Amino acid sequence: MTTTIVPAAPQDIAELRQLYFEVYGHGYPVALGSDPTEMHRLIADPHCHWLTARRPDTGELAGSAVVQTDPGNRVGKLVGLAVHPRHRQHGLASRLTGAVTAEAFATGALDSVHTTVRLVTQAPQRVVTRNGYRPLGLMPNAADVSGCETLALFACYAEGVLDRREPVAAVPQALMPLLGAAEDSIGISYAGVLPLTPVDTEPPPPHPAGATAPETARGTPSAAPSAPHPEIRTVIEVITAPGFVRRRFRDLFPDPAGAYVPLRTPNTVLTPPDGEFEIYADLDPVAGSCALVAVHPCPSAATRALDALMAALNRAGADYVETLVPLSDAAGLQAFLSSGFVPSACYPAMRRIGDRFHDYVVLSRTDRQIDFRTTAVSPLLQPYLAAYLTSWTSTYLPRHEVVR
Fold it and tell me: 196 forms bridges with which residues in the sheet?
């Protein structure tokens, strides 16, 4: 079957909505496949690459793929890959993926493009790996598409990026299985990284608003380590007012480096009644997921309230919560690990600072039962599945049930 790949245009929106409905039904949880206003915005965005495939004889829309970009952070994301059921089995998904990824990198504005793929079959995994994407990890229960699904994270890099990674000396012990999986699946080395015990990485106390503290790798203030504090048991208030949240977020974090979560815009703020801290999040109750974006006045301010935070997000409709933490931030990683978050994916060379690239880690927590029985995990992802199961077991099973 012959198809022509061309950029999407505003007049395609009605057909594109029908395409996503034909592929995903009513369960597609992404606005670019269902919201005409958002679709029009993306098509008009000069930093967004949206390609469609059409049959030259009939003009029928056969497929679609999008790469959204954050040129300030030099990161892109492949989303919305869809091929009409009548046009499958001809390699069109691979052609679209390759074309839109190549177009995005051709601008010279990106260091990497990442994507998440469903694991209902191995076919999507093969499509992205054929086009240079490397597996980075698994996010169990990350989306509610047709039921609660596990997603896999992949990334594709510009030439030379992985060769300029900043080394990390030590990480919490719980990260070691994930780093081993990354070595097996990507071919990078963490040979010199030492494991740290929880005592070595005690989370720092909250830092007073307005005070000055040293900079962390995230570019946000962090306090000096001291004895751990008890968990906050207060109720966390959830404010879902997207316009207000965006304005306040811009006021508190005018420098994009102060809250590094590329391609995420907070729409929700979570705070205790006394306003001791504010956690900014991208909450998607339709997909049942939430990404933590930033904390004011500093990341350490909320480390004592992560359990209360999870309870609040569960009430707001998010059964899955993830956060992005620099691999070099041992105290920040340990704070989330101590609150039931599990290392899910390693994103090497995600952030560019000067001429060097810094690795990041996705930590996730889900309060739904995880069921991998219907998950189609390819051999490239098997090391990540083993690493996740090891970390989940050490987090949630009593020690006498783990050690024989």
Answer: 172
Coil, strand or helix at 351: strand
Gap between the Cα atoms of 294 and 269, Å rounded: 10
Q: Same CATH topology for 4-162 and 164-402?
A: yes
* pLDDT per residue rounded down to tens, the chain (404 residues): 688 999 999 999 999 999 999 988 766 667 888 899 999 999 999 999 999 999 988 889 999 999 999 999 999 999 999 999 888 878 999 999 999 999 999 999 999 999 999 998 999 999 999 999 999 999 999 987 667 889 999 999 999 999 999 999 999 999 999 999 999 999 899 999 999 988 777 655 544 443 333 333 333 333 333 334 455 567 899 999 999 999 999 999 987 667 788 989 999 999 999 999 999 999 998 888 999 999 999 888 888 888 899 999 999 999 899 999 999 999 999 999 998 999 999 999 999 999 999 999 999 999 888 989 889 999 999 999 999 999 999 999 876 555 55
CB-neighbour burial class of residue 212 (10 A; exposed 0-12, middle 13-18, buried 19+): exposed
According to CATH, what is the number of the domain 164-402? 3.40.630.30
| CATH tag for 4-162 (out of 3.40.50.2020, 3.40.190.10, 3.40.630.30, 3.10.20.30) | 3.40.630.30
Exposure string for 219-256, b = 16+ CB within 10 A, e = fewer: bbbbbeeeebeeebeeebebeeeeeebeebbeeebeee
Asked if 81 and 93 count as a contact pair (C-beta separation under 8 A), the reply is yes
Domains of the chain by residue range: 4-162, 164-402
* 222 vs 199: CA distance, rounded Å: 18
